[in-house]
Amino acid sequence: MTCARMLSKGLCAAALMFLLTGCMSYRFSSTLIPKADSSLSLGSARFHIAEIQMVEVKHSTVPAWSTRISENPEDIQREALSYYPGVFSDDWSALPVHLRVHSNYDNSMNIAAFFCALTAGIIPIPGAEKSQYDLQVEIPGEDGFERFETIRFTRRDVVWGTVITPFGLIPVPGRSDIPKKTATIAGMGKETQESLKLRTTAFSNACCAEAITQVLRKADPARLQALYDSRKARMQTVTLDGARYWTFLGFASSRAEEEKPEVAYVLMYAGPPTWNSKPEEVIPVARRGADGRWRPTTGYVRKARTLTAASVLLANGRPSMVVFKSVDKPRLEDFTDLPVVEEQEVIELIRWSNRVLLQVKNRTLPQLLQERPTAEILTLVTHFEK
Q: Whole-prediction pTM value?
């Protein structure tokens, strides 16, 4: 009986030792620590993290795992909104924040594992994963991208572990900006690993949101307010043929290296737009000439039942408001350059252009043949043939 009891206790002790092997402890830190402040605001301006561009990624050994920020702007926006609801917003009127990120990863985990192995897995040796980020904050406006100062922060996670002793459960010495984590093989299943990665990534994203907030707080408040007011002023609602549309006057450059926008266009939505909405139509309404001056152009709303032109009014030499009007006798020149559309919309565009050209033929061509010189008419015909 005594032997059986001793055997039972021995088996329990062996099982316990097995469960305690492969112990690990983590701590998590950052040079920028997010601080929740629901009262913070930057005037009436609101911001939305809309785009992240990883410009340069360097790593000395292997890519970072726990200290990496998400490349999905929605993830960082979610953290920003939870920490600073008075600064960030999911409303479409918020100023879009674009991030250009330079990152540098370093990892000493392999070195720590090597020295731990020299102790037969008995003594825990700390290893670190470090990610350094340089963030450039940009906000698009009427004159191109407004660029703000670059800010740097570093995320660092330290872990140590053991193989055949429970010493790895001792918390890693040093500061941790979120609660430390300890685990054993028994408790470190796939779900726990995934939850740990989600937790550390969320912390990295929150640090990124903190960096953006600090940049915005140092920016000129009047300039931020002007950018916000300009964006809101370029949002309109219009009714065409009984259907309501939400529109936005935006700016773009045809070349990535261009500092100033070259084209103004109107985005048209069938409902109140969100940050994930796809526009029903994108219509160019102004172009910047070689002299740097804006000149209105005429585009046409393909979704409208009647022939409807879209153009723009200039204020202080800049496109300021989109205007729509029904056209009885369209100008032939308006159709020499048809809009560029997605591949799946080509057939629809061809049908629309054929219908419109038929109207031009019936309404405009007779008068054009009477009033225009022959040379000018031949030029138009040659352009259409191309």
A: 0.80
